[in-house]
Amino acid sequence: MATFPGGYQKDLVSKARQIAQEHLRPWAGQVDREARFPEAGLQELSKQRFWGLTVPEEHGGLGANLLTTVMVLEALAQECASTGMCFKMHLEGLNPLAHLTTPDQAQRFLRPIAEGKLFVGVAANEPGGGIQTVAQRVEGGYRVEAACKAFVTSSHFAHLFSFTARSDPATRDIMSFIVERDKMTCEVEGAWDGLGMRGNDSCAVTFTGLIPEANVVASPAAWRQFRTLHIPFVYLTYAAVYLGIAQGALDEARRHATQRTQQPAGRSLAQIETVQRHFGEMAVSVERTRSLVYRAAALVDEDGLEGQELVMAAAVAADETAVEVTERAMLVGGGIAYAKGNALERYLRDARAGPIMVPQDDITKLALGRAILGVSQ
Description:
The chain is of the alpha+beta class.
């Protein structure tokens, strides 16, 4: 059973909900229409010290555990999925540094992040799939040449990038680095114009330059060990965003159903039996998935998980719930919901990113099935 956060952590979740309602919700429609990066909302999170949400308290952060982080992301995405996803990727990029930092890195990176001065993007995905980039060992650090990373969320905004590369072209060993934007050539390609998540600014970025030795976060051996901590964080923070989308769509549909009347009877939509059944179905889907996501996060917080099956199942469930609930919410909204600019239509498009984002649901289900069956690839 999920163990809910204590008083301090509950205060963080409550504050996140307030920020979402007061600073994200009013701008969510404009962020979507204009494909505008949600800088105003992120800056409010910075003012409230949320950029350091998972930074350990000893380094000036808020020290939130995974369950609290999930609940904060859910609250943000409920009002603006773009802001929720940009912030999720910041936390994902920060996660290796938060666990594996050196004293020097803590001073140069973690404390400024906690103070709201540095924002992180993730430069991991590559156009051809997998990690092909090689960081060549040279005097003073590692050199990368024209390393293209795809779908780098917050590509124009991030000050730092969590950067992954091979240490040797002949092996699959991966290293993790922190790239400082102002100390390398970082060429952003074009502008983001997506179907949904339109504020994400998830453009391709090409990196060239020297990554100093002091910016190595994890050697190949350390990275292999760290993956057992990092993978649950990646899966469950994704799940939190899509859970938030599902809850946001349900809430928006409720507002529509209780405020709109059907002529000539003059009854509100909420009085129609079919509509009531839709809400029953949506509530079951959301609450069932929330229980799974929270339980997985709580177990990771308590003592970690021996396998990844539960977190993989939670991530897929959240994606599928977001798609299911937004589709059903559109049925409640009817023709009005189909019009551009309607919040339900926005939630519908935002939800579609879940099943295809890396790691894609089809691949995750395959890995989950193999893990349960105990068979190798």
